Amino acid sequence: MSPNYIRSFSEGCLRPPTVIGQFHTLFFGSIRMFFLGVLGFAVYGNEALHFSCDPDKREVNLFCYNQFRPITPQVFWALQLVIVLVPGAFFHLYAACKSIKQEDILQKSSYTGFYIFSVFLRIVLEVAAFWLQIQLFGFKVNAIYMCDVGALEKKFNITRCMVPEHFEKTIFLIAMYTFTVITVILCVAEIFEISCRRLGLLKSQ
Fold this sequence. Notes:
Blueprint: H1 3-14, H2 19-44, H3 47-50, E1 52-53, H4 58-68, H5 73-97, H6 109-137, E2 144-148, E3 158-162, H7 166-198
Antiparallel strand pairs: 1-3, 2-3
């Protein structure tokens, strides 16, 4: 791929053809990623080390932590961010290969339809991630986690585990849910903006 394609691709990703799309890129690429990268590490970085059960033994702590966290929140949210970026990246790669200028995307129906489809696909992926996050993490992190250690052939099948900084994690969970909702709203608003531009209700940029 030539440098011109790479430049067009990067410009398309950083500067979508709609005003709301540009705001979405700013919100998604700056605020949401910064929040996850910096604060997410501070809240969840040492969770496995501080997760302790009764009896406080390494094998019990590790077994119960794996049961408590089938996937760590940082990994889940990082995968979510990457997957949600894929539809837009494919579209802008297509636009770069076809030498389509950003200002021309909303002028031709086929380009506009393809772009709307990529935005709609982002919505579907965000909603799917939202539902999956609920299944994995819920809305609240409790201070005590009851772990089933029957597979370890312990005397007692259920043991109590202490979850470190559970209140901070609850706040972080709510924040990530909020970010997902905001992103979906921005995507819906972007489709609405495109429709208004196509109908002539809004002036082109």
